[in-house]
Amino acid sequence: MTYVFYYVEAHLACIFLMAFLLFKIRKGVNKQLSQIYLGNLIIVLIAYCFAEIFWALVDGGYLGSSKTLLYLSNVFTYLLINVAAYIWYILSEIMQKEKYIESDLTRVFISVPVWISALLCVTAYRTGLVYYLDENGNLTGGKLYLILIIVPFGYLLAASIKALSRAFSKDRYAERYIYFMIGIFPITPILLGILQAMYWRVPFICYGSLAAVLYVYITYMDNLVSIDPLTQINNKNQMYKYLVQKMRNQNPGLSLFMLIIDIDRFKSINDTYGYSEGDKILVRVANAVKDACQGPRSRFFISRYGGDEFVVVAEMAYRAEASWLADQIKNNVKKIPELTGCAYDLSVSVGIAQYDYEAPISIQSFIARADSDLYKQRKLNN
């Protein structure tokens, strides 16, 4: 069968490109959980490509045409598709910063459909529930064949629907790029999967998988560029992008505020306890700021501005709300020594500026206003 050569060639090309991506990911210094799962996803897809090569060689008669080989060639492909879809769902939840997914028990529970599919595939040789060989020796879908389709599509669609609902939320502008990526990721694999079901000797799925993984990798790398590696909050560049969008478009009934947070006597703590302790302080203060900005109607963008300074861009109705938020941040930071056992007191100064849409100014001028108020607050604290 002449198609076998081209089928194998296409999958070998995809294996090579995905192996290169895997090398780049594993070579990275900053090993986050999302990075680990992205690597795992690529490993499973590489294994799937090898399984497809095995299937093509069996289907083309190059490895024989026994019933056992025919079943095995399909078991591997179906199993790996299900596992890949499951890993993608876990990865999408991690990228959306869902804490529940970090539990081992939760991940096991979510994997139950994969185990059910695996059991049906492995026992199909005897039961024929998901597929069987007809009298002509052709593989035919059984009574429960639909399960093999529903499980992977279910994982993909569940992740997609959840992410897209967040992408269109006004309160989640900062993460919108990631949410859109997760939301549209399944489109290519699903469409090309349907095409391969219609023309099953054309390697549509391997191309779709490669395109989707490349898209995720590029988006993931872009996201890393916008995240401060120490505190895992937005960096200054991402803050500028956010401010440009917000300063052009006012939400009705809301004003735009900027809070600049500076850690008091940070240099002396660094000099006394070392830079390692200083890094811990920065992470703890970042978490304290994030905790203060939680809420069902939160409209806060949090970023590290540089050194020991953080910025919160907030949409609020009144300046009093911004002052209240500043007090919440201060109180959260003051509690850090008690919660962590630090041998020193910890406090922050907070400067506040309100943007006037009727008299627009530059981003630098807006920041300067908040910085000027920060200077006044710092003098009061000393």
UniProtKB/TrEMBL annotation:
Highest taxon of the lineage: Bacteria
GO MF term (any one): diguanylate cyclase activity
SMART domains cross-referenced by the UniProt entry: GGDEF
Presence of keyword Membrane: yes
Annotated signal peptide: none
Keywords: Membrane, Transmembrane, Transmembrane helix
GO BP annotations listed: cell adhesion involved in single-species biofilm formation; negative regulation of bacterial-type flagellum-dependent cell motility
A Gene Ontology term for the protein's cellular component: plasma membrane
Keyword Transmembrane: yes
Residues annotated as transmembrane: 6-25, 37-57, 69-91, 112-132, 144-165, 177-196, 202-220
Residues in GGDEF domain copies: 254-382
Protein's UniProt name: Diguanylate cyclase (GGDEF) domain-containing protein
Organism encoding this protein: Butyrivibrio hungatei
